[in-house]
Amino acid sequence: MGRTILFAGLLMTATAAATLAAAQQQGAVQPLQRAQPTSALKGHNGNAPVDVSSDRIEVQDRADRAIFSGNVVAKQDDLTLTTDRLTIAYTNNGNVQIDRLNAAGGVTVRSPSETGRGDFGVYDLNRKIITLIGNVVLQREGSEVRGNRLTIDLDSGRAVVDGGPPGVGQNGGRVQGHFTVPQRATQNRG
After folding, report:
1. Model confidence over 32-61: pLDDT tens digits?
2. Which of 87, 105, 182, 189 is 20 to 30 A from 62 (CA-CA)?
């Protein structure tokens, strides 16, 4: 009886696979594709206003920049950046448009589900790219990746961590990761 059940199971599997293959050839069913890992910042509203608070501000109008220092907190939509010093580069054609945020000293970028840290950070609002450099740590849902540079593309949600040149940084030029594994129920075999 065991062989009969096994044979019936194999026959059903083969029939289902043949039906799926035929449907794919006819275009009725699209093949399954693996989802690319994405940042929770994918689709971040880069057009939202940027609110900044700090202990001090110095506006250098002729250079089209403002320098914030001391306990700097910059917020845009659900993205928060904290740092010791923040330089905002802007264009002023009768209407101030922020082009770039350059952060230095203890840079942290937070979204509702991710936190990135580094020594320096650049947020290019025109290209919609955030880059953290130096002793980078990216944390998400209990997992952590360390490296020398983190680049997040806000349009695609793609996050890339690079280790940097050999011997540079705490990781010796390599990327290191610690990943949580979903808890699965164990089956009793007996």
Report:
1. 343 444 566 677 888 899 999 999 999 999
2. 105
